[in-house]
Amino acid sequence: MNDYKKSIITNMVVLSIPTVLEEVMSTLLQYVDTAMVGHLGEEATAAVSTTTTIGWLIGGAIHAVGIAMLALMSRAVGERDEKRLRALSEQTVFLVILCAVFFGGISMLLAPYIPVWMGAAPDVRGPASEYFFIISVPMLFRASSLIFGSCIRATLDTKRPMIVNLIANVMNVILDYVLIYILDMGVRGAAYATAICHITAGTLMFMVYLKKPELSFDIKMIRPKKKLLHEISGIALPAMGTKLTSSLGYVVFAGMVSGMGTTIFAAHSIAVNAETIFYIPGYGLSSATSAMTGVAVGEKNRKKLSVIIKASVAMTIGTMIISGIILFMIANPLMAVFTDSARVVDLGASMLKLVAFSEPFFGLMVCMQGLFYGMGRTKNVFYVEAFSMWGIRILFTFLVVKVWQLGLTEVWYCMIADNITKALLLTGSMLYVLKKKKLWTD
């Protein structure tokens, strides 16, 4: 390996470590957060979890704007176009405010109705509505954390966003304990802790953003610019479509499994949550790869892009192979952490051992998504997600559950087939893009 490739791979490793640690620590702290609420009882857990899917949709939509800004800004960094970077920075501030007003307003207005639409029990609707309203109030700060964080990563700075999110997440856990247990505020305390976490993360991320000289902006120029907004929407809207398609697919998928019986659904739900920590490193690597890809595209450096792609694929798959081996080995004790039911542990562990073999494909899928996002080619990801989620996972799960009346193992085969299909289709699409020798969107 020559010095040029070594320097690129070393840079990728350095950039990836903070994003991987950020994802892992965030997930671990969310486990603690969930466990604290869980000890309040089933009603409290239901009140917090009832609106979780809607929260994911909103977060996904805002994150899609961040994906667009990362793609465009990292390209401008590669081009060393300070004028364009300043213009994009000004649009970023405008978009953060726009997202806060739109999503925050909609969320607070619909807070009383969402628990009803989600089928929550009458005694859960009040606390669920209050919880969702409280965490929706600081939407400006949530948008700030997600979008400004993506912009900071576009400058190949992954360390500061990690520190900001670590501070906010640790604070969330501490506040959860104080507000839920010491002050005995219950679900309301969990909501206030989450809201304060968003405020902290958003404020700190904006402070970091202001200190980045390459992201400086003129406050008088913060207004909508039609040409730039059109360019941003061309990347952000397909990314939003991907998040929406994926989230709705998960809801339908879980709904079909829930009808298979309490034990089966419990094993399925716990296994899915337990698996999360094992594919998080793939997402961390993907985030860093997106920024480096965008810079290489801006530089019009095909050789550098080629090294980034090959190194990213090798690192991600290698990491996921190790992750899969560990998951297979500790499947039973891992399930036992979340439940005392021997039947649930045995069934869930069987599913985890099954999915462990497909972790490399999941890693490949996530890697390709990161590369496409860095190139600004979010349409490719959307088309693959829509086809595979609904044409593979949902369709065949419906046949397995409703028509053939098979078991949970066959359901997980459908999930694994979905991930493998996405990995192969995205890889094929990437090879086609590289063959055309087009480094940017059409």
Could you characterize the architecture of this molecule?
- The protein has 442 residues and is mostly helical.
- It is built from 17 helices and no strands.
- 50% of the residues are buried.
- The radius of gyration is 22 Å and the shape is globular.
- It folds into two domains: 17-224, no CATH class; 239-442, no CATH class.
Topology of helices and strands:
Layout: H1 3-38, H2 42-49, H3 52-79, H4 82-110, H5 114-117, H6 122-136, H7 139-154, H8 159-182, H9 186-211, H10 226-258, H11 262-299, H12 302-329, H13 331-338, H14 342-356, H15 359-375, H16 378-403, H17 408-436
Helix pairs in contact: 1-8, 1-11, 1-12, 2-6, 3-4, 3-7, 3-10, 3-11, 4-6, 4-7, 6-9, 7-9, 8-9, 10-16, 11-12, 11-14, 11-15, 12-14, 12-15, 13-14, 14-17, 15-17, 16-17
Question: Could you give a short account of the major beta sheet?
Answer: none
Distance between the termini: 34 Å
**N-to-C series of helices and strands:** HHHHHHHHHHHHHHHHH
Number of domains: 2
Indicate the mean pLDDT. 89
Secondary structure: helix percent: over 70%
Counted beta strands = 0
Shape: globular
Unreliable parts: none
DSSP strand content: under 5%
Query: Rg to the nearest angstrom?
Result: 22 Å
Task: Kindly name the structural category.
Answer: mainly alpha
